[in-house]
Design goal:
alpha/beta, 19 helices, 36 strands
Length: about 700
């Protein structure tokens, strides 16, 4: 927490230390190069005039969020949901006098709601106003695993506490002046954005609507500009933005790579901050393989105001609206993004409409914003979508007037049917009678499958179009229900999933901390019954190569916790959870395994092939379809036949995996590219739009 001290911000530093078994803070005179005093508490923020500091409970903070507090002492409040103990202190800098300001129970008793009753509470992120009279604090509580955050402001003398924002999510904040606070947070009406709020009122302004990524924001010294950043995306790229309040679109001034080994608790956020002249910002970065400080020049003339994009009909273009629930990081969302990225923009104008707010921990919304000229969120709740969603969506579609609506999944497709003036299309990515019971439970899943199948049949009778993501899935619908659907196979972003030769694999294994003497066996996807990961793990551990492998399973889902517990003591099996550098693990791998009982068109398999991995797959129709595209890059085994699985696995590891991987990569690039997939969709769009025009 090292920081310059006022009032001159030139001669003294203050920082935290641990001495004689206690936390403390040290005031250091940089001109004399001596410690001037040691204060009895660690500091969090210091008043601008250098007269006092605020401190909080760093022990509880560390236990509840490792990496944010200090670990030198045990948390004596452990096991107490809402301690009747002090959590914020005021400390005089000159005398070291300490005054207790607030307890955890003070926050829980202030404008309480029912989610606080059985929740565990903490406070964090103290920031003192420029005049030193008020401060802000984030009050957080955890109810049944769900985190709630509100932004509270209060006078330093404990008076005039105010609940400034209380819509579940609040993140980084900054005092613009003594009355206004900038923060990335959630408003129920307008969603997750940067907002400039007036303290002790309900007044606010939404800033930069297209910048929907959380960051460490701060105003320049003259308050004319704002600097902020982003967290690394899936390619491990993070960004620095400069904004003005007049702009609609921020200006990206830096793009920084964050190596994958710097993640989670040991990550290095950019944390941009201004120099005193307001013409440079400093960032923390690890792009050179070590933690360092870097300076970026900033000129106000480089960030002119950008007018807000306005929906308009572009002559000669067809407007295609992609209606989706939210930009969740998933195979279907990535496939839809691949379609949009490869659209012929002289012919098609893409518009994305989301129904719900983003889950920022699992969202690819920024990737969409980078390529989509028009992006709208209707900010519905789940209940809203059921009660009034169809009507609200229809009213919005009436404004943008699309020629074709491509729904991502059956719920958005069903809701979009309220708008009658466009062609409707949905890509079926599963056989619902297999997928829904596994996802929603047998009884509810079967009911939902029946509901969707009834709607599909009804729409077919009306002449509406459907397409599947694989030839084998179309065959299932044809054989079981006589429904004749065209298919367009999923495609891979070839630029993202690059082929890794032997040298590249060795390099990636070293960087990821994996043994070069082991076969690296990979899987990525959801941990649900249908994916059958436990079967694959058991078979591999019973194979003749069991002691020569390291199996890495990437992804999340309801079955992950049980599998982690079962194999916790087996060093040959590793679970990563959701990670952003899947492509790097694929480049380090030797073999990809999928034991799925059902698929639409397996994205994980295609991505592995593009990265140069041979594959071992269950003999479900979709897997066999992948293996039949070309020959020589994988084997199949009889589903749920452990002996056959082990035999095929052992046989594969005795083959030339590099040669098979090269064939797999070539097949993916020649037959399964995202550009080819998008081309087929564009041809379908044109046929459907022209057919609709003929009807009218």
């Amino acid at each position: 927490m090292a920081q310059w001290m006022g009032p001159d911000f030139m001669s003294h530093l203050i920082y935290n230390d641990f001495r004689d078994g206690k936390y403390c803070s040290v005031v250091f005179d940089v001109e004399k190069m001596v410690e001037e005093k040691v204060l009895p508490l660690p500091i969090y923020d210091v008043a601008r005039d250098g007269s006092f500091a605020l401190s909080l409970d760093f022990n509880r903070l560390h236990r509840m969020r490792p990496g944010y507090g200090y670990a030198n002492q045990q948390d004596r409040t452990k096991g107490i949901l809402c301690p009747d103990e002090c959590c914020i202190w005021k400390m005089e800098i000159n005398t070291g006098k300490v005054v207790e300001l607030f307890k955890y129970t003070d926050f829980a008793a202030f404008e309480p709601d029912e989610t606080m009753n059985r929740a565990e509470h903490k406070v964090n992120h103290l920031m003192i106003s420029p005049n030193g009279k008020r401060f802000m604090v984030l009050h957080r509580w955890f109810d049944k695993g769900r985190k709630h955050t509100r932004l509270v402001t209060v006078n330093v003398d404990r008076t005039e506490m105010y609940n400034l924002s209380d819509d579940v999510f609040v993140s980084h904040c900054f005092w613009k002046n003594d009355q206004e606070i900038l923060s990335f947070l959630r408003k129920k009406e307008t969603g997750d954005h940067y907002y400039l709020m007036k303290d002790k009122t309900k007044e606010f302004r939404l800033l930069w609507p297209r910048l929907r990524t959380d960051g460490h924001c701060s105003y320049s010294p003259d308050r004319s500009m704002v600097i902020t950043d982003s967290y690394p995306n899936r390619k491990r790229m993070a960004f620095v933005y400069v904004c003005t309040e007049e702009q609609e679109q921020p200006v990206r001034i830096a793009k920084i790579f964050s190596p994958f080994k710097y993640d989670n608790d040991c990550r290095c956020d950019l944390h941009p901050r201004w120099n005193r002249e307001g013409n440079k910002v400093c960032i923390d970065s690890v792009h050179e393989g070590k933690r360092g400080l870097y300076v970026i020049p900033v000129k106000k003339k480089d960030v002119p105001p950008v007018p807000a994009p306005k929906p308009e009909v572009v002559k000669g273009k067809y407007k295609v609206a992609y209606v989706i629930t939210q930009c969740k990081n998933s195979g279907p969302m990535n496939q839809t993004l691949n379609i949009i990225k490869n659209l012929e923009r002289t012919m098609f104008q893409p518009i994305v409409v989301t129904l719900f707010q983003e889950d920022l921990g699992n969202s690819v919304v920024q990737r969409y914003l980078d390529v989509v000229p028009e992006f709208y969120c209707l900010n519905m709740s789940k209940i809203d979508s059921i009660v009034t969603g169809k009507k609200k969506l229809a009213a919005f579609l009436e404004i943008i007037k699309p020629d074709l609506i491509h729904g991502l999944g059956m719920p958005p497709y069903t809701m979009s049917l309220g708008y009658k003036e466009a062609v409707h299309l949905v890509t079926l990515r599963n056989y619902c009678y297999q997928d829904y019971p596994d996802k929603y439970g047998k009884q509810l899943g079967t009911l939902l499958a029946y509901k969707d199948m009834t709607l599909i049949q009804k729409q077919i009778n009306r002449g509406e179009a459907f397409v599947t993501c694989s030839k084998s899935l179309s065959k299932i619908y044809s054989e079981k229900y006589g429904m004749k659907f065209a298919f367009i196979r999923n495609g891979i972003d070839i630029d993202k999933y690059e082929y890794a030769n032997a040298d590249k694999k060795a390099t990636m294994k070293e960087q990821l901390g994996l043994s070069c003497n082991k076969y690296i066996i990979l899987y990525t996807g959801q941990f649900i019954d249908r994916k059958n990961q436990g079967f694959a793990i058991e078979g591999i551990l019973k194979s003749s190569h069991a002691d020569d492998i390291c199996m890495i399973l990437m992804g999340d889902g309801p079955n992950l916790a049980g599998l982690r517990e079962k194999y916790a003591d087996d060093k040959r099996v590793m679970f990563t959870g959701n990670i952003t550098n899947v492509n790097e693990y694929l480049q380090a791998g030797d073999l990809y395994v999928s034991a799925s009982k059902s698929e639409g068109m397996p994205n994980g398999v295609l991505e592995a092939m593009a990265s140069g991995l041979p594959v071992l797959l269950s003999d479900i129709p979709q897997h066999l379809e992948v293996l039949e595209i070309q020959k020589g890059y994988g084997f199949s085994y009889k589903q749920d036949d452990q002996r056959d699985f082990i035999g095929q696995f052992d046989s594969l590891l005795d083959r030339d995996l590099y040669k098979m991987g090269a064939i797999a990569s070539r097949a993916a690039k020649e037959e399964l590219s995202a550009s080819q997939m998008s081309k087929h969709y564009q041809e379908l769009y044109l046929r459907l739009i022209k057919k609709q025009a003929y009807r009218l």
